[in-house]
Design a protein that fits this description.
mainly alpha; 19 helices; 417 residues
């Protein structure tokens, strides 16, 4: 009997560790504590979808422009990448809303559009085998635009389905946990993709990175398809309001209208100067690519801390409380850059800005869910994203003119105002 006591103690310790791990996993990582099945399982799949989707994006997002350069693209063609991708995304939001309303479930729309978007990654990986030179460059621009367009086509359905599967009382913590793992996957995978590309060379390194992005994205789509449909979600939905009806009744949704206008103005002001931060850092302050990578890593860490901190605070104090505390710091990021004279001085400014953006973006998405009616959420989400995309496209155009003719400091002052 005495000889069996150590074994019993070890068993109890193992059980205790398993119990504690389950609590940490449900409370901190997946933020599903207190959620009954099958809803808890659905939130777990949603969290895992974010993990694999982030890994997929990390293997292509920072390197697509470099891929163009490796194929022999000019600077103007690299600049066209942002333009065609932004335009493709902006024009697909409203069709996406109609698609979401006409298919049986939001989940099926998201899975279908995500698979279509991620198929472009496989085609990008195979491109050097079938084309080179200018045809390859044009193909990259086309495939990048199709990838963004297909992804944004499913965005209204993704937003509406997110509201169905995540309880309102849990949204702050859960989306904070999902954003946290997204940032963590980005931190780990971006340098890994860079090492892979550098080690294998061009174009083989890019092909390998894009192939991994496709595999991770495919896994994300398969995992998302496993999310159980909510029992409260009807199998057949009545048609939502038409675009004309939605525009005519916007005045009845004052919170949504105010939220959209504030977001547009903020995006417009920020984008007057945001695209030129790294240009100024490298050209005027003499920083190198290694320092830019250090700054990006620090900003990602600050964003991770923010979403972990503000997740419970959003649930406890509300969305308005969070946005009022983060918004002023977001608006004052350009003001901090006015005093930068050395590269290292950008680190605290970038960290504070990333921290503020982390909390603000978390509250923004939750407010979008809270301010849109259930029956018209895909359409209202599309209207919001279209308005945001327009401001994100106009801002850099105005800022680019100001940057070329008046200089970086004038862009900073205009952005602050």
């Amino acid at each position: 009997m005495a000889a069996s006591l150590p074994g019993r103690r070890n068993t109890r310790r193992t059980s205790l560790w398993r119990y504690q791990w389950r609590r940490v996993r449900r409370r901190l990582l997946f933020a599903t504590e207190g959620v009954a099945e099958p809803q808890g399982r659905g939130l777990l799949f949603f969290w895992l979808d974010g993990l694999f989707a982030a890994g997929s994006e990390a293997f292509i997002g920072p390197y697509l422009a470099l891929y163009l350069l490796a194929l022999g693209a000019s600077g103007q063609q690299v600049g066209m990448l942002s333009a065609v991708v932004g335009l493709a995304g902006a024009v697909m939001f409203l069709p996406g809303a109609r698609l979401a309303e006409r298919l049986p479930s939001y989940r099926s729309v998201v899975v279908a559009t995500s698979l279509a978007a991620r198929t472009m990654l496989a085609l990008l990986a195979m491109l050097p085998w079938v084309a080179s030179g200018q045809p390859a460059i044009v193909a990259v621009l086309l495939l990048a635009a199709l990838r963004e367009g297909m992804g944004q086509l499913g965005n209204p359905a993704w937003t509406a389905f997110s509201a169905q599967i995540v309880p309102q009382s849990l949204r702050g913590r859960f989306f904070a946990a999902r954003t946290l793992v997204w940032n963590l996957a980005t931190l780990l995978c971006v340098p890994l993709a860079g090492r892979l590309i550098k080690g294998m060379g061009s174009p083989q390194g890019y092909q390998a990175a894009f192939a991994i992005a496709f595999a991770a994205g495919l896994a994300a789509s398969v995992i998302y398809a496993q999310i159980p449909l909510p029992s409260s979600a009807p199998h057949t939905r009545t048609a939502g309001p038409s675009l004309r009806q939605a525009l005519r009744t916007l005045g009845q949704h004052r919170t949504f209208v105010s939220f959209a206008l504030i977001t547009m103005v903020l995006n417009l002001g920020v984008q007057l100067v945001a695209p030129f931060f790294n240009v100024y850092l490298v050209r005027q302050l003499g920083a190198d690519a290694g320092f830019v990578g250090l700054q990006t890593t620090l900003s990602a860490l600050a964003s991770m801390v923010a979403v972990r901190l503000f997740g419970p605070l959003v649930d406890r104090h509300g969305l308005r409380w969070t946005m009022l505390r983060c918004g002023p710091f977001v608006a004052l990021i350009p003001f901090g850059w006015l005093f930068v004279r050395q590269p290292w001085q950008t680190l605290p400014v970038s960290a504070i800005g990333a921290f503020a953006w982390g909390g603000f973006n978390l509250a923004t998405f939750n407010l979008l869910l809270a301010s849109t009616p259930d029956e018209g959420r895909p359409l209202y989400s599309a209207l919001f994203n279209t308005a945001s995309a327009v401001s994100l496209m106009i801002g850099p155009l105005i800022g680019g003119y100001m940057f070329d003719h008046w200089g970086f400091r004038q862009c900073l002052i205009a952005s602050c105002l």
